[in-house]
TrEMBL record:
Keywords: Endonuclease, Hydrolase, Nuclease. Gene3D superfamilies: Endonuclease/exonuclease/phosphatase. The keyword Hydrolase applies. The keyword Cell cycle does not apply. InterPro entries: Endo/exonu/phosph_ase_sf, Endo/exonuclease/phosphatase. Residues 24-240 form the Endonuclease/exonuclease/phosphatase domain. It comes from the Bacteria. SUPFAM superfamilies: DNase I-like (SSF56219). Transmembrane segments: none annotated. The lineage of its organism: Bacteria, Bacillati, Actinomycetota, Actinomycetes, Kitasatosporales. GO terms for molecular function: endonuclease activity. This is Endonuclease/exonuclease/phosphatase family protein.
């Protein structure tokens, strides 16, 4: 499914001090695929903020995170091994006020999960950011959804974004829990493609961008109609498709 919106709004600062911000969410599968294709996709999206999942978190993970940032014309903000995989990158447009990485309670035998979080200021707009990759097990995932909402509220910012790989679809308990408290980007302002699994895989929307009340979602979806984003690069970059949103954040 694709919407009829022809263009995704560009990053800009409005006369009233609000900021139009591009946010990208992307599961990069530990950079095991075509890194050049991945960097081309990210650069074509021209994001101000990138919430990464499955960032490298073992041997020389900081070096790999720094290289991904440099190849994408971005800077490393926080996350990686210290958040068990979620990572945040940003353009030079974002001034980082503070960061915190959080490890979540772990069920024995399952992967450690965590959140990468930051508070940034873009012009006069102040925004909390959280990158997540939730559990594949339903009960643990549901509990993590509650922790996500608590953590987002605890950032202490008037506006916030949460983005990531939910391992859940819109009809699932965890997805519905988040959507009952936050704006679901695709459901609010659909643009581009809906499903975040690659062509040939079962079509699912398991990656999403959410925003708190007061953030205006202008457009959100898989950036398949975006100039510079090719099907070949999307297939080669990783096993997920990215989600790109343009949001307007009020001045504070």
């Amino acid at each position: 499914m694709s919407s009829v919106l022809p263009d995704l709004p560009a990053s800009r600062t409005e006369p009233d001090g609000s900021a139009v911000v591009r946010v990208l969410s992307y599961n990069v599968r530990s950079l095991r695929d075509d890194r050049a294709a991945l960097a081309r996709v990210i650069r074509a999206c021209a994001p101000d903020l990138v919430c990464v999942q499955e960032a490298p978190r073992f041997f020389r993970w900081r070096k790999h995170a720094a290289r991904l940032a440099a190849d994408s014309d971005l800077v490393y903000v926080t996350g990686g091994a210290t958040a068990a995989g979620p990572l945040i990158l940003a353009s030079l447009r974002a001034h980082v006020e503070r960061t915190a990485d959080v490890l979540l309670p772990r069920t024995p035998g399952l992967h450690q999960r965590g959140f990468a979080t930051a508070v940034v200021r873009i012009g006069r707009a102040r925004l909390g950011v959280l990158s997540c990759h939730l559990s594949m097990r339903a009960d643990e995932r549901y509990a993590q959804g509650g922790l996500l909402l608590d953590r987002l509220a605890g950032l202490g910012t008037p506006h916030a974004i949460a983005a990531g790989d939910l391992n859940d679809r819109p009809g699932g308990r965890t997805f519905r829990r988040l959507a009952s408290h936050l704006q679901d980007g695709w459901a609010t302002a659909p643009w581009g493609g809906e499903h975040t699994t690659r062509p040939g895989d079962p079509p699912q929307r398991i990656d999403a961008i959410f925003a708190t009340e007061g953030v205006e979602i202008l457009a959100c979806g898989v950036p398949q109609p975006l100039p510079g984003v090719t099907d070949s690069d999307l297939r080669a970059a990783t096993d997920h498709l990215p989600v790109l949103a343009a949001v307007r954040v009020p001045a504070t």
